[in-house]
Amino acid sequence: VIAAVHGPATGGGMALALACDIRLAAPTLKMSAAFVKVGLSFGELGTSFNLARLVGPARAAEIGYTARIVEASEALRIGLVNHVVPSEELLGEALAMARRIAQNSPGGVRLSKRAIQRNSEIGSYEAALELENRGQALLTRTADMPEALAAFKAKRTPEFTGR
User: Fold this and answer.
1) 120 contacts: CB under 8 Å, gap ≥ 6
2) pLDDT 10s per residue in the chain (163 long)?
3) Calpha distance 158→97 (Å, rounded)
């Protein structure tokens, strides 16, 4: 899931952007975990979980406790967004990235996403390797794997089916 954030993303808008796999932002981005300003905690809608994993617990605490605004340049510097793109190019860049992802093996992308999600919850490197190895073993049994190898050998783009 790719977020293309143009302008303010506060409270629930920030939570929605944080839940995405990839975040692109226009220079007009202004993010804030504004929950504490209205008597709530920033532990709402997954914000505390996702923000801490993206920027680290200390930086997440500072952003969450102060409810301050994080602008595009800082968001990029601290890893809150992947890229800052001119406003007029934002949607086009998000769609271009989606097309680049869609050109790859559906099973490979799906299991890569699953590995990233699970590895943020796994407590050891050994468990992460086991999860990754299981995914690779499963993917070698798909119809996309021989197609990818044949395409590589023939120097052509593979035609993935997701099976």
Assistant:
1) 53
2) 999 999 999 988 999 999 999 999 999 999 998 888 877 788 788 898 889 889 999 999 999 999 999 999 999 999 999 999 999 999 999 999 999 999 999 999 999 999 888 877 777 767 767 877 787 788 888 888 888 888 889 998 888 888 8
3) 18
- Both structure tokens of 68: 């301050």
- Cα 123 to Cα 131: distance, rounded to the nearest angstrom: 12
How many CA atoms, within 13 angstroms, populate the side-chain half-sphere of residue 145? Answer: 8
Output the CA torsion sign for 96, 98, 99, 103: positive
Strand 70-71 relative to strand 30-32, pairing? antiparallel
Predicted TM-score (pTM) of the model is: 0.79
**Per-residue exposure over 86-118, b if at least 16 CB sit within 10 Å of its own CB, e if not:** eeeebeeebeebeeeeeeebebbbebbeebeee
Map residue 140 onto helix, strand or coil: coil
Q: Are 47 and 27 in contact (CB under 8 A)?
A: no
